[in-house]
Design a protein that fits this description.
It contains 30 helices and 29 strands. It is α/β, with parallel strands linked by helices and about 800 residues long. α1 crosses α3, α3 packs antiparallel against α4 and α13 crosses α14.
Length: about 800
Amino acid sequence: RHASLPLGKARRATLRPSMVLAGGLETIQGPLLEMPKTCDSSWEVHKFGGASLANAGLYRTVGDLLISESAGRDGETNGRVPTMAIVSAMYGFTDLLVSAVQAAIVSQEDAEAKIDDVVEKQIATIRELAPPEVAAPFEKNISEDAVKVKGVIAALKLIRSVPDVVMELVTGLGEVWSAQTLLAYLRTKDVPCDWIDAREILVVDSKSSGLGEKGSSSTGGVTVQWEESAARMNGWWKDKSASFGDLDYSEEVPIVIVTGFVASNLEGVPTTLKRSGSDYSATIFARLLSAARVTMWKNTDGVYTADPRRVPDAFPIPSLKYDEAMELAYFGAQVLHPSAMVPCMDAEIPVYVRNIFNPSFKGSVIRGRCATLEDRDRMALEPSDPTFQTKRGVSIPIKGITSIDKVAILNLEGASLVGLPGVASRFFGALGQANVNIIMITQASSEHSICVVVPEEQGDVALASLRSAFELELSRASINSVSLLKGMSVVAIIGEGMAFTPGVSATFMRALFSAGVNIRAIAQGSSERQVSAVVTREDVTRALRSVHGAFTLSGKVCSVAVLGCSGKVGTEFLKQLHANADRVSEMTDLRTRLIVAADSKKMIHEERGINPDSVEKLVVDGDDLDMDKITSLMAHDINPTRVIVDLTDSDEVAEKYEEWLSKGIQVVTASKAVGAGSYERFKRTSVAAITAGSQWAAECSVGAALPLLNTIRDLTYTGDVIREIEGVFSGTVTFLASEMENGIPFEEALQDAYSKGFTEPDPRNDLNGMDVARKLVILGRELGMECSVEDVEIESILDDDLAK
């Protein structure tokens, strides 16, 4: 009964003749689809990617979801909603078809085996979804397609190459078969439904050939021929409407399944919208239908503030604007395809991003445009708040943080180029002729240095093109160098609110600095919607987490290593670390994660975190202590805040402070080995902390953890001159004197002090005056004195034999 779509008595829906799509696309002339009078709702378009179509169960989920969505939403739609679904190939099938075509160059048998494997899986899915009488026509279509494909690829072994048109033809079949599979299931639900092979409707003009890069942020210069596509859409609708004129849209509405990714050119040759182009298919058809909305169904709850795989505290953004979404997508956010925004912009069609596995969640909505520079200046004088509220209720000026991996920095330097016109023109002209995609540009005003960021796979080609273009200048040494630096990533913050909030860039840079991330290049557009920085690839996750936390988008995670975990102080510290973790997190939004614990012989490491209560048992069976390994683990940890707690009195550990601090690792210590040890080492360590912006917290080394050192610093920084410090600096001696006054024998008092953890690891250091001497040296150095333990006069109460 529902083999095709109804028309019935129709009313005419038209677009304003003046409406032109963004990006210079053609105006759609004349009427679009004529809808029956019983239809009070506009079309809605849904797009499902391969991950949502991985098996028969997910095809059922998608089909049931479409039926539910077509029933309308109370308070949002006027009754039932005519629905169109754009589908990708079944999960992984595009890659399988690509490999089949590539295999045909070497072996026809291997290629056919791969195609047969895809066909068998697709047909098996259809059979699981529909009874034989429903499935049979679709099985026949797929089998016939497979025979034709095998004939097409048979000649590839002879020509030893794959023409682009062949690759695009074969890989597009994944979507063709997927659409029919979903249609087979809908037929079992007795709903009005049909499918469209987009190659018969969608006409494009492409300036490039082939599939493009998987996950690319570009559709490769594909331009939609809007008038022709609209005419074909109208023709299809009229052809399908004849046998369904009696359909009452107040009771049931059509569901149309459309192949994503594929299209045809003006000559009718099959082509594609390039890899990841099904989002583009969805918004193109939404534009052709004047749809009320487009919903991109993903496996996440919307567009996130950052990649949740790298930033666990990332969360969905409730709403953002087209420009912000395009920036996020361009800079690596894989949730949306950048070109997908273009057809919806001028038509003001909102784009929703929702989770197919959590359909009750509203997800993210993308609508509206960001302010132009002129509008921004006007808005700056008016009450305006373009920021948004985080899940903690904090208003912030950015919408998200994202990144592009696998990029390279290409740099041209030359002192003699200063003031010489045309250098930039030749520079970019050479890259353009080599078809190199430029991701980011930064340049000094004198043109002494021009720096661009390019995809890493294009780096060598870009380098060769510049060396060729400036061959004469290089030979004469007019240009110092043309260099390429690989292994880079771009980190970007994005949001319209940046234009209205001072200090955003400063917060961004400070967050990178505090995480120990070195910035190789910086760029910011005049629109102030995004600021980007180039960092080394190994630092990108730490950078993302640090920046995300800096803008209060999430709490911070502090990775902790504890050295000396089995001693009395270490054992007590771990107990307090565990007992106070929740309270500290609630008060400071900082979560501690113990990832390394070590005693004098063994160490353990667990990136996901170690329960402090289990350390004593686990460390016994740990690996042999390796200070270099601990340094490497902490230096490369992905969390921006990394702290090593030194509860030892080891000189070997003290030798590592300088290296740790220089790598951006904070050091908290009870040890006096550096503070009172070699003055040269003390100075190197202090300089390393200042240079890297790291903290060397040594309050526990003197004053029984009272803020004595910080108080001295504060007084000194505010101009006070400290002339003298008096005090009793040995807690052990104070305790012993107090106990002896109460009649406790010295031996018992000392044993009690040791058992309570009051003494140094070796109690003789308390009794021979060395502990106090070292504390005095620490205080003296804090006052700016260049002193050492040898400068302190010590009177020991121990005789020489006992002292040894």
